[in-house]
Design a protein that fits this description.
It is a single chain. The strands form seven sheets. Strands 1, 2, 3, 4, 5, 6, 7, 8, 11, 12 and 13 form an eleven-stranded mixed beta sheet that branches. Strands 14, 23, 24, 25, 26, 27, 28, 29 and 30 form a nine-stranded mixed beta sheet that branches. A two-stranded antiparallel sheet has the order 9-10. It has 712 residues and is of the alpha+beta class. The protein has 16 helices and 30 strands. It is 28% helix and 24% strand. Helix 14 (528-540) packs antiparallel against helix 15. The structure holds 2-acetamido-2-deoxy-beta-D-glucopyranose (12 copies). One 2-acetamido-2-deoxy-beta-D-glucopyranose binds next to helix 13.
């Protein structure tokens, strides 16, 4: 990928931006070093976990460095089971291969190996932290926590395919998402007489056949870099997390609970998680797909999922969340996420023929399913307790819940914007007026004046319908702000309350009390997924940017500093733990909001019409202690490149903002005035006027290269 240089205008005050741009112009741009993917689809382990060796193991690092074989031997029943733990250095996903340099057996059978996989050392044990069989039933249940091998006497490569060596004996689950694998010489009693816990095995090499998207530098069509290396690194960590879940849908590798789908078989999809939750759920795409568009612009995986779910729309307009349970898992919020994700697809990739093909599907969700669940007295969506519907976190809540309604407002407004750009004015008008009405109903019905934030909205669990529980949730409050339900003052009040009530060292909790599910510590549970919307609300609410950066640093700093490192977790529980123990997916694309947050707010690039034909460029330059940021966003007509750099002149702060957008596109730039009383602002060298006291001036420009400069 060629980096096109910006035209650097002469600017008559001292700035260091030329040096940072020069770095980016180098043959190997400086951001390349942050990329996390393995260099090829054959991934080698990085080491043996210290102190993991048990029993008679000779040359333990042999299999790592291909310097002679590692030999596991056991000659007597009384001997310890020879064991090693291999570390791949970071979370990986795919099919393991072992190169054997032969084995020696006793008369009791070939020596058996057992393999237990784990994403973390904490949950590494004699059974995998999770295997496909753990979620399977009947014939689909092949193993009980370990994969088995019967090691032959010959030199050969064993590949961890899904299946059994003979009938139901010596079985393997196949694909795994993991960082560590524990290998030991032992046979399951049920595998006798094929394998034995005696003998000796030579392992001369080991590798992983990477199954997912390989995000190496030249696959990046978008990138990000800023003066804080942690933030920069987390952007690439987020991309890697989504890469791990971007994979081919195969019945033998996905979620087994009725999720296999002939339509999806063999296609690229975006799974929720790499280890577990290997089914594409549409709510997760609300974040994961944005990461995908902004990094590799690989829209095919998202489109395959959205189209498949559209084809399974129910007659009443409801759309299933995923293929699981043969497309019947009842979630109440996910049809709205299908709408949001469909609009995202068109906005980010410009595929208006997708919009045309599925317009009727979208209309049926917004004008069929949700109106049929609207309470005519309150004007709000009601999820009645006996519907049995859940949501992204299977929360025990019903009634006029703020989250469902705020998300409905968001979906209506966003779809209305798309309808407008596609010349579907009637739909646009109907949806935006309904969005306004529901927003007003939320304000009059669900706002808790005593704390200045929305109630969760329904009764306490077990409470009577029509009552309201004294509890508040992150989801509804954050999305209400983003959907424009609240004015700036109310938004700021909500965000202040939320920060104060729920802040943890590992992020902000998703509830301010655990009353809905006592014992589950909701007030100490953090979802990076829903936190994305809260942090975005902080970036869009004046005066709240520094709290956005603070929350990012707590949340992503925590995950990056804890095992397995790099990848982003499904959920965080009390004391910063994996919220569902070993079962927790530690590589979950929905937690990668850091990518759209940095690209969409710190660079400030947002689409305003399909394919960024019109865009908005509103970088947040203050509040995070950053001195510069730069990057690119792919669009169908070419890239949008943004670079900004703050300076410190004698007369006060300075800012240079450079942009390059495709010819034929146009948009609005927000130029911050940095609190300067009467700033001198130039656009391409010509002065432009700011009114005194303005914190931001907006300027419309057409495509091409432009430079804004601000000084005292
Ligand atoms: C350990 O295994 C090796 C073969 O790899 C064997 O030569 C040696 O005798 C074994 N040691 C013990 C104490 O069993
Ligand atoms: C193990 O080795 C013996 C020779 O010691 C051989 O006769 C026998 O067939 C082998 N058993 C298996 C199960 O491979
Ligand atoms: C699975 O293994 C565990 C020990 O790890 C054991 O307690 C349990 O009985 C096993 N279940 C089956 C079905 O074999
Ligand atoms: C396996 O290969 C090794 C060298 O890589 C060799 O020393 C050994 O004899 C071979 N064993 C068999 C059974 O072919
Ligand atoms: C699953 O099936 C596909 C297609 O048949 C095959 O390519 C793949 O290797 C299988 N995966 C495993 C883990 O066996
Ligand atoms: C899934 O549902 C469809 C439509 O309801 C039905 O035709 C099909 O047989 C079901 N498949 C399975 C495996 O139950
Ligand atoms: C756009 O979407 C349509 C309908 O879903 C699909 O057939 C087409 O391949 C997509 N085009 C691109 C360039 O992805
Ligand atoms: C509609 O909301 C009103 C006011 O909260 C409530 O009394 C009524 O039971 C709701 N209707 C239904 C059908 O849930
Ligand atoms: C923050 O929380 C404390 C204790 O819960 C409370 O006393 C204080 O008034 C709160 N401040 C704000 C700004 O909400
Ligand atoms: C970067 O993050 C690490 C831990 O994740 C932390 O120790 C370090 O202080 C951070 N650096 C900066 C500049 O914030
Ligand atoms: C969090 O850690 C503290 C200190 O170890 C412990 O007392 C507390 O029980 C933990 N909280 C939960 C919910 O596990
Ligand atoms: C800038 O563009 C926006 C979006 O097209 C438009 O609403 C606004 O009126 C324009 N402002 C000026 C000053 O032209």
């Amino acid at each position: 990928m060629a980096f096109t240089t910006f035209v650097v205008f002469f600017i008559n005050f001292a700035l260091s931006f030329t040096s940072s741009l020069a770095t980016a112009r180098d043959k190997d741009p400086s951001w390349h070093r942050y990329v996390r993917s393995p260099v090829s689809k054959i991934v080698k382990p990085t080491g043996i976990v210290p102190d993991s060796i048990v029993g008679n193991v000779s040359n333990p690092t042999g299999l790592i460095h291909s310097l002679g074989a590692t030999v596991l031997s056991r000659s007597n029943e009384g001997d310890l089971l020879p064991t090693i733990v291999v570390d791949f250095g970071q979370n990986v996903v795919g099919i393991l291969r072992l190169e054997f340099g032969g084995s020696q057996n006793t008369s009791t059978g070939l020596p058996g190996l057992r393999l237990a996989f784990s994403e973390t050392l904490e949950y590494l044990s004699d059974r995998s932290d999770f295997t496909r069989s753990d979620n399977a039933n009947g014939d689909e249940k092949l193993t009980n926590g370990t994969d088995q091998v019967a090691v032959k006497n010959i030199n050969y490569t064993w590949t961890d395919f899904h299946g059994c060596e003979e009938d139901t004996k010596v079985c393997s689950d196949g694909l795994h998402g993991f960082r560590y694998v524990k290998i030991w010489l032992e046979a399951l009693p049920s595998d006798a007489p094929l394998t034995s816990s005696l003998g000796s095995v030579s392992i001369s090499g080991m590798s992983l056949e990477w199954s997912a998207y390989l995000g190496i530098p030249h696959t990046f069509t978008g990138w990000f870099e800023c003066s804080d290396q942690n933030l920069t690194q987390w952007w690439y960590d987020g991309v890697y997390t989504v890469d791990m879940g971007t994979d081919t849908f195969f019945a033998n590798e996905t979620e087994p609970r009725g999720a296999s789908s002939p339509i999806l078989e063999g296609k690229q999809v975006l799974f929720d998680g790499a280890k577990r939750d290997r089914d594409p759920y549409v709510g997760d795409l609300a974040v994961a797909s944005l990461t995908s568009y902004m990094s590799h612009d690989f829209a095919e995986a998202t489109r395959n999922v959205l189209e498949d779910l559209a084809l399974h729309q129910r007659d009443d307009g409801w759309i299933p969340p995923a293929s699981i349970n043969n497309y019947t898992l009842p979630l109440f919020d996910y049809p709205l996420w299908w709408v949001v994700c469909s609009v995202d697809l068109v906005m980010y990739t410009g595929n208006t023929s997708y919009a045309d093909t599925y317009w009727n599907t979208l209309v049926k969700v917004l004008d069929g399913y949700y109106p049929s669940n609207t309470n005519s007295t309150t004007g709000l969506l009601d999820k009645t307790a006996d519907m049995g519907y859940g949501d992204y976190a299977f929360l025990p809540r019903s009634g006029p819940v703020t989250y469902y309604n705020a998300l409905y407002v968001h979906a209506l407004s966003y779809a209305s914007r798309l309808a407008n750009s596609l010349g579907r004015g009637d739909d646009a008008a109907r949806w935006s007026s309904r969005a306004g009405a529901i927003g007003d109903a939320l304000l009059s019905h669900n706002l808790d004046q005593s704390v200045g934030a929305f109630y969760d909205g329904g009764p306490c669990s077990g409470g009577a319908a029509g009552t309201i529980c004294d509890v508040h949730a992150q989801d509804g409050n954050a999305i209400a702000i983003l959907a424009g339900v609240t004015d700036e003052k109310k938004s700021a009040g909500i965000l202040d309350y939320w920060q104060n009530a729920t802040s943890q060292v590992y992020g902000n909790a998703f509830y301010d009390s655990s009353v809905l599910s006592p014992g589950d510590h909701f007030d100490q549970r953090v979802y990076a997924f829903i936190s994305y919307f809260e942090i975005a609300a902080r970036f869009t609410t004046p005066g709240k940017a520094s709290s956005a950066f603070d929350e990012i640093r707590r949340l992503y700093g925590w995950m990056s500093a804890h095992d397995p490192g790099i990848t982003m977790w499904e959920g965080i529980g009390p004391n910063g733990t994996a919220y569902e123990g070993a079962f927790t997916s530690m590589a979950h694309g929905w937690s990668t909001g850091i990518v759209p947050l940095l690209t969409g707010y710190v660079l400030g690039v947002q689409p305003e019409s399909p394919g960024f034909k019109m865009w908005k460029l509103c970088p947040v330059v203050e509040g995070g202690g950053l001195t510069w940021a730069r990057g690119e966003v792919p669009t169908p007509q070419g890239k949008i490149a943004v670079s900004w750099e703050m300076g410190d002149a004698e007369s006060g702060p300075t800012l240079v903002l450079e942009l390059e957008t495709p010819e034929g596109s146009s948009g609005t730039v927000c130029v911050p005035t940095l609190g300067i009383e009467s700033p001198k602002i130039t656009l391409d060298g010509s002065p432009i006027q700011a009114l005194p006291g303005q914190t931001l001036i907006t300027v419309n420009v057409s495509g091409g290269k432009h430079v804004f400069a601000i000084e005292s």
